[in-house]
């Protein structure tokens, strides 16, 4: 019996029941994986530990959806339609944390540049961080997670160029510009990890808040949430043009930042990235933030300074 033409043999192989079953099985697996990612993404709208965990992983769920989409195009194209829903929900969830654009150049005499970094207590790197940040030419330097030794080291490093300063607890601020008022903030806790100073900027008096939010551990975040709510209340009662910087211990989409976002504008990175700040060796999340009210953002980026496990945020504002 004569054999079938080669092209018919290939077609029969491609359309074989085994191939169709394999494709259907792959489609089911991809669809289930997509629904699991969807459930994880929806978590960013759930307050508490679920929202905190979902926000930390949110950027990486987008990467997972991209991989699933590529596999679906190769193995089961119809399943791509199923993935459209989680992709759309992910886009909606990540949108408030997306990169921004720098505004046009302003008169240099009216701009204020502020840098902020968690210098990691007991690391011995505060002096190096302070020197690196001062070299950027910033007008205001905010440091968090300071211990007694690192505070003393930073003071010695910055004293000559930054004559105005204020420190309390684990936070401190240094300024080339005069400081007219300073106060410690407890933000609902029994100890002080935040401060407020009024800086006499060229065109306005600016309230600068620096905070070091309480740490977050699995199932333990009440202190952090209390501080985030407290800083929102403090700014709401403040009539001055304001900027809030520091380590918030909350990823950009964390629902616990909702109260702060309702009072101030979250400063989007203008360097085309998501502005991840931690860990410095391989940044996976943005937990150090800048919020403003009454200012135009000219630049917002991250920079390496010292040996800290956090990148520093560098922001240029026009008041």
Characterization of this structure:
The protein contains eight helices and twelve strands. The strands form two sheets. It has a six-stranded mixed sheet with strand order 3-4-2-1-12-11, with helices on one face. It has helices spanning about 5-15, 15-40, 50-75, 80-95, 125-135, 150-160, 220-235, 260-265, and strands at about 110-120, 140-145, 165-170, 170-175, 180-185, 195-200, 205-210, 240-245, 265, 290-295, 295-305, 310-319. By secondary structure, it is an alpha+beta fold. The chain is elongated, with a radius of gyration of 25 Å.
Please describe the topology of this protein.
Blueprint: H1 6-14, H2 17-42, H3 49-75, H4 79-94, E1 111-118, H5 126-135, E2 140-144, H6 148-158, E3 164-168, E4 171-175, E5 179-185, E6 194-200, E7 205-212, H7 222-236, E8 241-247, H8 258-263, E9 265-266, E10 288-293, E11 296-303, E12 312-318
Parallel strand pairs: 1-2, 7-8
Antiparallel strand pairs: 1-12, 2-4, 3-4, 5-6, 6-7, 8-10, 9-10, 11-12
Helix pairs in contact: 2-3, 2-4, 3-4, 5-6
- Characterize the largest beta sheet: strand count, sense, and whether it forms a barrel: 6 strands, mixed
The end-to-end distance, rounded to whole angstroms, is 89 Å
Let me know the number of strands: 12
| Helix count, DSSP H or I runs of 4 or more residues | 8
Strand order of the largest sheet: 3-4-2-1-12-11
- Helicity level: 25-40%
Shape summary: elongated
Radius of gyration: 25 Å
Strand % is 15-25%
Parts with pLDDT < 50 across at least 5 consecutive residues: 8-14
